[in-house]
Amino acid sequence: MFKFPAGLYCDVRVERNRETMISYLKGEIREMRERDTAGAFIRVFDGGRWYFSSITALDRVQGEIDRLAALAAPNKDIAADKMVLALPDRSPAPVTLRGEDLKAVPLAAKNALLASFFPPVTAEPAIAMWSCFYKDTCTHKELYNSKGAAIVSDQQTCGMRYNLSFSENGRTFAESANLAAGDLAGLNGFGEALEGRIAKSLEFLRDSTPVKPGKYTVVLSPAAAGVFAHESFGHKSEADFMLGDETMMKEWHIGRQLGPDFLHITDSGSLPGNGYTPYDDEGSPARRTTLIKNGRLAGRLHSARTAAAMGEQTTGNARAVNFEYEPIVRMTTTHFEPGNMTKEELFAGVEDGLYVETIKHGSGLSTFTIAPSLAYYIKNGEISGPAQISVISGSVFDTFGKIDAISDKVELLSFVGGGCGKMEQYPLPVGFGGPYVRVRELTVL
Amino acid sequence: MINETISSVEDEVSIKLSASALESLRAKSISRTGVRVYRDGCIGVSGYMGTEGEAAARERAAAALGYKIPYPGRPSTGSRRAETVGGRPFTPQALDAEAAALLAAFRKDFPQFVYSSSGIKTGTSRRSMRNDAGLDYASSITTHEFTFFYKLASSSSILDGWFSYTGTGYDRAAFQAYGSEMLAAHLREVPLPAEGRLSVFFEENDSQLRNIFFRELSGMTLGSGSSLFSGKLGQRLFNEGFTLYNSPGQAFRPFFDAEGVCGEGFKYIENGVLRAPYADKKTAAKFGYEPSGSATAAYDGTPDANPGNMRIQSQARTFREMLGGRPAIFVSMAMGGDYTSQGGFGTPAQVAFLVEDGRLVGRLPELQLSSGVYEMFGKDFLGVSSDPVMPLSGNRWLGFMMDVRKN
């Protein structure tokens, strides 16, 4: 298909997307479109440096391969390069869609689904402003490399989000209801979730009080625990941060005890939802990677480059946000595994603490942060009223040691809009979630 | 009926550094075109990527009128303007050489650190907006970005800090001096003088501090009564030295927005008085506001208001004059904080420096900062300096009195 130059590794990733976007503002149509796009990302490696190009003119792919090759230094031993050896050389059966093909669903049907949830919103007078959108993305990817691999996959995701601004007696509060799935059937239950979110938001609007800053025991919902796992530890498991860094390699050595023995965290690109990545963007297949087992560091996430450098296996985590970018090490669906007690037992053990149900955003470097939206006081094991919190934070180095309970059921979640950001690449869809997690001594502002 | 075409061509070359070595060179050339049709108070939109597809996109846009998407404002008409900002981008070879030279210099002077970056870039962004009612706008902006992430070789963190410059000019010596001051200060750990209310400075473009205005100054939110500031237009809510305005120029964005409105200098808050929200034409028409020139749109999407170009006006005093001989804190990295629904603010400060006499003298421990919007931009507002954080940069020092605690 392409003529790859001698003495160099080369791959070409062609992406063709169909996106649907429908949005309303306070019941008035704002956007209704179907978009078809195509582009290519080309990589050339000479054993020392990478040379990349991203283009929208697909008839220029061969020209770009040749142009990048001219910048590189051909290497007769390129085939023996450790990283090149880690890259795929097979052409597996194409990955086909799971569920109903969204491209075959009429725009009117998608619009009707989104609009069917207007009534509970318009019926609530305290909702002063609201918007909503439906979005789906169908992606066809083809990856060809100079080792002879040809990997073809089709994926799709869809979702809805209602953004709600409440106002009453001079007080305001903003929340959202959000759900993503692999097809429209996966969006069943959105109406119930929306109504529940409206009820809780009204309570928060009317009764919330500012929390007194300090250190608290915090219970994290599956959504908050998912972000906690992602931000506090997930990024540390991305092996590109460790390359050439002896301190990081020593600090994050396999087997290091990080938390209690009932703490387990995994990442898997095979799970349905936003993190579903059957083949990553350099062609490595998805794997279930155990990152923490029995509280000890058990694995990390790799691209071919990092796997080769550390003498480990690829994990299917080289992902790019779209055809404009090169694949880098990213999470797929990262979550806590079931823990050591029931949800009821977990709450019962909190005398004076906080519960975070929904969040606005999170971040994770040396200090991880979670900015809660719906949050509550816990008194004597019971949720006692809504709490206004700016931010919850803790050190990534010792917070896992302060986890003292994890509930025994896992809930995986996918949302539409937003995603994970790393360097310049944002937003990358990822899946997350988990059980309820209880953490001692988090800083609350 | 009015037909309109919006085109965008982004050409960029970037260098990636990893583990203190040059890892990759990337070239991008991305072309997008949006086609709009206005008729009977409605808008139809479509678009295409690449260089071909205008006729088909125009047919789709005309068909999209059938969706009856209201557009009560009139498209901009009858104005011509073309503006070129910046000079030529670096060639790939020249950018590669410049990145290598900077990396070598920092490695020589500060070998204690490991350097990485995905933000060494040069490129030109070309935008145009034309319609058959006489609008003809064109913008070409060439910028260079040099961002260095650093971490101590002995550190267990993913990164310990960064320094960055984006602008139309470039001067290696100035950038090197800026980075060197931060790296040198990072190597000197100093204690927090005292917990409590202290002078805290940020770079003025730190978006976290303005999140509350992004959220609460939306015309739709304000007009519908769901903003913290609803019903307060014309009232003095903040310090009289606080002026918040629209400046696409300082953000290196085109002089026109996605509706052809030129909003440079549009004031949202003037001398502490709430003047106007940010609004696209549709919002402005609905609530009787002025369009602020802050509409954005996907290339094939309908316009919507966006607060991204908000800046805080600087005052006459230099940073050193603002300090008045007292020590202060400069927060270089504060990630993850936010405002509560009632305006309370809190954030960790992951990287902060002690400042004396206008210079960074040492690295402070991680801090927790807290305040509230009416305090920070009211009685505790120290202002924005007249001088930039580094020569060449349009970015200035922004200060508040805040409650500061060790983490």
Short account of what is shown:
The complex is a heterodimer of chains A (445) and B (407). With 445 residues, chain A is an alpha+beta fold.
* N→C terminal distance of chain A: 58 Å
Percent of residues in beta strands of chain A: 35-45%
Structural class estimated from helices and strands of chain B: alpha+beta
Largest sheet of chain A, in brief, is: 10 strands, mixed
Q: What's the CATH H-level homologous superfamily of the largest domain in chain B?
A: PmbA/TldD superfamily
Biggest protein-protein contact in the assembly: A-B, 72 and 72 residues
Calculate Rg of chain B over CA atoms. Answer: 23 Å
Query: What is the CA-based Rg of chain A, rounded?
Result: 23 Å
Q: Could you give a short account of the major beta sheet of chain B?
A: 9 strands, mixed
Regions of chain B with pLDDT < 50 over 5+ consecutive residues? none
Written description of the protein model:
The complex is a heterodimer of chains A (445) and B (407). Chain A is α+β, with helices and mostly antiparallel strands and 445 residues long. Chain A contains nine helices and 26 strands. In chain A, strands 7, 8, 15, 16, 17, 18, 19, 20, 21 and 26 form a ten-stranded mixed β-sheet that branches. Chain A has a six-stranded antiparallel β-sheet with strand order 3-2-1-4-5-6. In chain A, a hairpin with a 2-residue loop joins strand 23 and strand 24. The longest helix of chain A has 18 residues, at 190-207. Chain A is globular, with a radius of gyration of 23 Å. Chain A starts with 8 loop residues before the first strand and ends with a strand. Chain B is of the alpha+beta class and 407 residues long. Chain B folds into three domains: 2-186, PmbA/TldD fold (2-Layer Sandwich), CATH 3.30.2290.10; 196-204 and 314-406, no CATH class; 208-312, no CATH class. Chain B contains eight helices and 22 strands. In chain B, the strands form four sheets. In chain B, strands 8, 15, 16, 17, 18, 19, 20, 21 and 22 form a nine-stranded mixed β-sheet that branches. In chain B, strands 1, 2, 3, 4, 5, 6 and 7 form a seven-stranded mixed β-sheet that branches. In chain B, a hairpin with a 7-residue loop joins strand 21 and strand 22 (396-406). In chain B, helix 2 packs parallel to helix 3. The longest helix of chain B is centred in the N-terminal third of the chain and has 18 residues, at 92-109. The termini of chain B are far apart. The chains are: A alpha+beta (445), B alpha+beta (407). Chains A and B meet through strand 2, strand 3, strand 5, strand 6 and helix 7 of A and strand 2, strand 3, strand 5, helix 5 and strand 16 of B. Strand 3 of chain A pairs parallel with strand 2 (21-39) of chain B.
